[in-house]
What does this fold into?
Amino acid sequence: IAASPLLRGADGAVSDALYHREIATDGEIVLIGLDQHSLEELGPWPWPRDYMADVLSILNSDPETAPAVIGVDVLYVGESADPYADAYLAETAEWGENVVTAAAATFGSALVTDEEHFGMDTMAVLAWDAPFDALAAVTETGHINAMADSDGIIRHAMLYVDTPGGERVYSLARVIYEKYAACHGLDVTPLPETDANGFFYLPYSAAPGGYNSGISFVDVLDGLVDPELFAGKIVLIGPYAAGLQDEYRTAIDHAAPMYGVEIQANQIDAYRNGNIPHEASDALQLALLFIISALMLLWLSDRKMIVSILTWLLVTLGWIGFCLLAYSRGIVLHALWIPLAATVSFVVSV
It folds into this structure.
């Protein structure tokens, strides 16, 4: 049962509740939201591209208050109907040499063949949406793809995407982090350990709203925000309104949706902290589950009730404590498997 998909949702929920805790952020990441207030003032999305160009110009107008990095979590694919706005956006993005733009892959199934084998690749990149040429030429680019687990919860981040052209493009968060580290002369933390598709376990630092400083895009556009607030920091500009359809359920809070730009912020802080855990092998955990289940059944088969209860408590609480210890050492274990096995063994023996 543990090896099948039947327990994934329940185990994921228990593990999420055990591992993820909101911690205080240091204010180095500042969000500028494309929020409801901005939509009311500027009209429905999409806006003319010169709006974003004006904001980039304002942020980089004074080198003393310019951000270390500006991450634009908005896709600007292909030339628009306004060539002036396109040229203006590319020009302002080039000024500060600190802008990172977004790209996105479309995944699907494709037949993969070589000289001896063939098969279906369910994670094939069918299309690649990159910034229009003039903008791509003057900015660094990172992908913004996010994929949920089978229960609809985002527990993993995608470190890189291999494009159809053979280029490996790292995530927007990773590109922003490395640019920030270079700006401040910081050592870059190692790349996280990933699976074959580039996914790694994402430790969240903040719940939905945890990075929200209440800065609206239109307020920056109107000059109502003190530029000192952005000096030397990471500025993320992205959708922050329900109508823009960029919200997800995440491991730190299953109930409240988190906007995509906040997921980017959590990834950046994970890179900054350098404490990204990796998931232990399922094969190893299944072997451990089998051994503990067998020992529990043998031990509980002829014990008195009080001994059985104490054994159940010891194994259950001991495993939870061990999971927390392992997580603090950078290893993610299935939190539900052993306690459930101990409970089943206890009930069966009684």
Notes: The chain has a mean pLDDT of 94. Residues 305-328 form the longest helix (24 residues). The first strand starts at residue 29 and ends at 34. The CA atoms of residues 233 and 305 lie 60 Å apart.
